[in-house]
Specification:
Blueprint lengths: L1 H18 L6 H19 L3 H25 L3 H22 L3 H22 L3
Bound molecules: heme C (HEC).
Length: 125
């Protein structure tokens, strides 16, 4: 039994080593950055159509980020943060639809904080 566990742990390390060679798509993060900026200004301008399409795009992109960290493994924190970001983006779609731009602003602020939290732990440099 102990041998089996050791073997499982060892293979975990090997696969983690291989997987960490895959990089998060920098293009994806750049698009997230641009879309997040656009979202903030669209919310500030009460631009319903613009904010809605930005928030929908972010919802989809964070779903991709979630999948990426799920596959990468050993990054449950990042999976949670990606999921939180996805949920916040989705909530913003709802707030904007209800013309509740105050709540949309609050959610967007929380979203931006979530970016930084994930970068602190998972972005090397
Ligand atoms: C779940 C984790 C996570 C979340 C949430 C996240 N990021 Fe990132 N981000 C990363 C990682 C990891 C990198 C580093 C990618 C690399 O260099 O391989 C990165 C890199 C970046 C970069 C640098 C890209 C480049 O050109 O090198 C920008 C800009 C960025 N993120 C913006 C954002 C913004 C804006 C948000 C929130 C709206 C956000 N990120 C949310 C994990 C995250």
């Amino acid at each position: 039994m102990r041998k089996l566990i050791l073997l499982a742990v060892a293979s975990l390390f090997v696969s983690a080593g291989v997987r960490s060679a895959e990089e998060m798509s920098v293009d994806l993060m750049q698009t997230i950055e641009d879309t997040n900026k656009s979202l903030s200004s669209n919310i500030a301008l009460s631009n319903k159509a613009g904010a809605t399409s930005d928030a929908k795009e972010l919802t989809q992109m964070f779903a991709d980020v979630e999948t990426y960290f799920n596959h990468k493994g050993d990054a449950s924190n990042a999976v949670d943060l990606a999921k939180q970001s996805k949920d916040l983006s989705n909530q913003i779609v709802g707030f904007v639809a209800a013309n509740n731009f105050d709540s949309a602003t609050t959610a967007a602020t929380t979203l931006s904080r979530t970016c930084r939290t994930c970068h602190t732990f998972y972005k090397k440099e």
